[in-house]
Amino acid sequence: MANQQGDLGAALEPVVRDAVGAAGFELEQLEVQRAGRRSLVKVVVDAEKGIELDEVAGVSRTVSGVLDEHDHVLGGPYTLEVTSPGLDRPLTKPRHWRRARLRLVKVRTADETFTGRVGDTSENDVQMLVGGELRQVPFDAVDHAVVEVEFKQPPPEELARLGGGSQEGAR
């Protein structure tokens, strides 16, 4: 059954990706699970600027229309769940790191675990302010990284060191 679920996801992925892209967003994840006679289709979408609740609803309508056109692939009724990635989503791609600019991130490498504020990002590494020092962290050295929740505004001097003098980008 797991293989069939993977096959459904693989069969639907191109059309769902195209529909999400046409709506101006990126498909982060597509998961199809069988639940009795129904399928659960979970679609995780995101955008460079983030995604608002009303935008999620619009993407949901778009994806639903595409799935209805491809109901022969699903082979029966389905439940569609469209959502955005949560804060606990690991940062695995350069675009995830760009979206986390000026945020506090906990990073685990093979050698250490540290928390730092995210600065500029390239395709290969990220600049981080760790313990008051700027350092370049290569993506291929990162085993796991997640955004830390902050309950107060970041110190202005940290933002200034990372080229983010205003609060823009810091949440």
From TrEMBL:
GO CC terms: cytosol
Swiss-Prot/TrEMBL keywords: Cytoplasm, Ribosome biogenesis
Residues of the Ribosome maturation factor RimP C-terminal domain: 91-151
Every Ribosome maturation factor RimP N-terminal domain range: 16-88
Family, as annotated: Belongs to the RimP family.
Function statement: Required for maturation of 30S ribosomal subunits.
Protein name: Ribosome maturation factor RimP
Species the sequence originates in: Kibdelosporangium aridum
Gene: rimP
